[in-house]
């Protein structure tokens, strides 16, 4: 097993993050005018579902 310099690993991670960000931006730009499959809509205005959250809490208590 090789020992890696933490700074080098951090640099590589930032490079990978930048590549992911570029790809995401590209994919969004390409698909901006296309149709979205049912159930794949992205909505940022969704409110948390308290009923499901409370059910999960209830199930953990059992």
Structure description:
It contains two helices and no strands. By secondary structure, the chain is mainly α. It is flat, with a radius of gyration of 20 Å. Residues 1-20, 32-62 are annotated as: Disordered. This is YfhD-like protein. It comes from Paenibacillus tianjinensis.
Mean pLDDT: 78
- Uncertain runs are none
Rg, Cα atoms, Å: 20 Å
Oligomer: single chain
Share in β-strands: under 5%
Sketch the topology as an H/E string, one letter per element: HH
Q: Structural class of the helices, strands and pairings?
A: mainly alpha
How does the overall form come out from the CA principal axes? flat
Extended strand count: 0
Main sheet: strands, sense, barrel: none
Fraction of helical residues:
55-70%
Alpha-carbon distance between the termini?
Answer: 45 Å
Discrete helix count: 2
SSE topology sketch:
Elements: H1 6-31, H2 50-61
Quickly list its features.
flat, 62 residues, YfhD-like protein, 2 helices, mainly alpha, 0% strand
In short:
This is YfhD-like protein. This protein has helices at residues 6-31, 50-61.
